[in-house]
Amino acid sequence: ASVYAYAGERQLTYTPLDAISTAVESMKASFSQGAMRDMSFRKQQLQSLLQGIRGHRHQLAAAVAADFSKPPTESEFYEIAPVIFEIGQFLKDIDKWARPDKYRLGSEQPVFLMSSMEVRKEPLGTVLIISPWNYPLRLILLPLIGALAAGNTVVLKPSELAPCTAVAVEDLVAQFLDPNVVCVVQGAAAETTELLRHRFDHFFFTGSGTVGRLVGKAAMEHLAGVTLELGGKSPAIVHHDVADLGPAAMRIMWSKLTTAGQTCVATDYVMVHRVVKDRFVQLCKNFIENAYTRTPHKSPDYARIINRRHWQRIMDLLSATTGTVLQVCDDRPDQSDRYIPPTLVDNVAFDDPLMVDELFAPVLPIITYDSLDEVLQFVNSRDQPLALYAFGSSKTTEFIFTNTRSGTAVANETMFVSAASNFPFGGVGASGIGRYMGKASFDTFSNHRTVLQAPLALPPPAIDSVRSPPFTGPEN
Ligand code: NAD
What is the active site of this protein (predicted)? Predict the structure, then answer.
């Protein structure tokens, strides 16, 4: 197999349902046989993956572009480069992360004076990684790095909605990783449901809350660990004391228009203080025009909506909104190409149809506020978002952080935060459970096994008196 066989040259073939069991069992068997025990083997696998990605980065980006016209530069910046960086981090730090944490309890609890205590980082076993379509390389490869580094065998389930990338990932795995330790199961809901019937040692899911709940239920049925990386409506708040509105508008629009708004940490909507609102809107318009011209349809740097169903969902929302859809671009939505231009919607009410679910669209609802109390009341009345972006003085941004909850909080920036390797990433409440990236990934995919080694000889006499009745009563 070759990763050159990506865009349409090789069709995505779903794994037959009756072959899934065999695939899972073979990963479990190789784990039991100790395939991943050796740290140098794990490093060699990471090295090989690194080589494969480096050697085929253009083909990988082309596969994503074939799926939904995602600009290859976006794939390079936000998917391939971060994955390469993450492997480098692991190769540098894995020995440190894998080292047992040693404890000396003797001074606080003299009964442990003669014992040695440590927490070992052991693999969990065989883990399942299910990924979505929107960053179809990054969101399957980043967790894979952590899972392999921690010594697990892995079953990968790419998203069927990015079929060219799913094939490219399958080929990359076949060409550069040991088939005894990683396998790819291809398919959609039926194949994933079949996978969820198996008792994995950890379930790692990135995607929607709806499917996340199914994965969570399956994990609980098996009493296995679960990480859910979900989405939600991540707000940006722009207060009147922001030092400079220009970068604020640029950073918000960047997060909204990258991958045409189909990013889990995109700014979903913006709340802007009344005194800076008009200037902010003008700056957003300027950004769109400068970045994509007034005809973004022709721009090579602007992605398409993943499929017709989502295109129609977004168009229905735009028909239903009671806000003011601003005329920013000269071209119109195009169903045949699944194109929706960058769209600003002003004067959006709290109960607008655009404010119900995660938009996942290049559409920015703008809500005007007069006091931060209004902002807090609204944000806190909703599910806790994956990210919250606050623009203002440090006093204002801290005040907002102290009075809200979210997976990540960022002052005066937006999704730039997800570039930070080794910075635990994840949601809270409806936006997810658990953390990954760098050491957090290693920990997520490890069993932190507490090991006590006690001496048989010379037990402190005090312990034996509480082991064997008759008790003499508590000593003073
Ligand atoms: P999705 O939940 O529809 O699909 C994710 C995976 O689940 C796919 O592999 C798919 O094949 C599988 N699946 C779909 N329906 C299923 C079913 N009924 N039963 C079992 N499996 C099923 O999500 P999506 O549309 O691919 O991705 C978009 C969502 O993912 C958004 O909500 C976004 O915010 C979220 N997301 C989160 C992060 C994060 O890091 N937190 C990153 C990217 C995307």
Answer: 229, 264
ipTM > 0.95 for the complex = yes
Helices (H), 37-136: 39-55, 57-68, 72-75, 81-98
- Kindly give the confidence (pLDDT) of every residue in the chain, 476 residues in length, as a single tens digit, with 9 standing for 90 and above: 333 345 556 789 999 999 999 999 999 999 999 999 999 999 999 999 999 999 999 999 999 999 989 999 999 999 999 999 999 999 999 999 999 999 988 778 888 888 899 999 999 999 999 999 999 999 999 999 999 999 999 999 999 999 999 999 999 999 999 999 999 999 999 999 999 999 999 999 999 999 999 999 999 999 999 999 999 999 999 999 999 999 999 999 999 999 999 999 999 999 999 999 999 999 999 999 999 999 999 999 999 999 999 999 999 999 999 999 998 999 999 999 999 999 999 999 999 999 999 999 999 999 999 999 999 999 999 999 999 999 999 999 999 999 999 999 999 999 998 888 889 999 999 999 999 999 999 999 999 999 999 888 765 556 677 788 888 766 54
Q: Which protein residue's CA is at the shortest distance from atom 28 of ligand 1?
A: 207
| 224 neighbors 199 (Cβ within 8 angstroms) | yes
Name every residue whose Cβ is closer than 8 Å to that of residue 376 and which is 6 or more positions away in sequence: 400, 403, 404
Using CA positions, which residue lies closest to atom 43 of ligand 1? 264
Transcribe 5-32 into DSSP letters.
Answer: S-TTTS---PPPHHHHHHHHHHHHHHHH
DSSP for 407-432, written as a single string: SEEEES-SGGGGG-TTS-B---GGGE
**The amino acid at 40:** S
Residues 328, 228 contacting (CB under 8 angstroms): no
The structure tokens listed for 282 are: 């003008």
Q: From the CB of 357, is ligand 1 less than 6 Å away?
A: no
Q: How far is CA 46 from the centre of its chain?
A: 20
**What number of other Cβ atoms are within 10 A of residue 342's Cβ?**
24
Q: Which two tokens stand for residue 240?
A: 């009147």
Contact 248, 280 (CB under 8 A): yes
User: What 8-state DSSP symbol labels residue 339?
Assistant: B
Q: Which of 164, 216, 212, 160 is nearest to 188 (CA)?
A: 160
> Residue 64 corresponds to which amino acid?
V
Tell how far the Cα of 159 is from the centroid of ligand 1, in angstroms.
8
* 408 and 386 Cβ atoms separated by less than 8 Å: yes
254 DSSP 8-state letter: H
Cβ 159 under 6 angstroms from ligand 1: yes
226 three-class SS: strand
Q: CB of 190 closer than 6 A to ligand 1?
A: no
Q: Which sequence positions are flagged as catalytic?
A: 229, 264
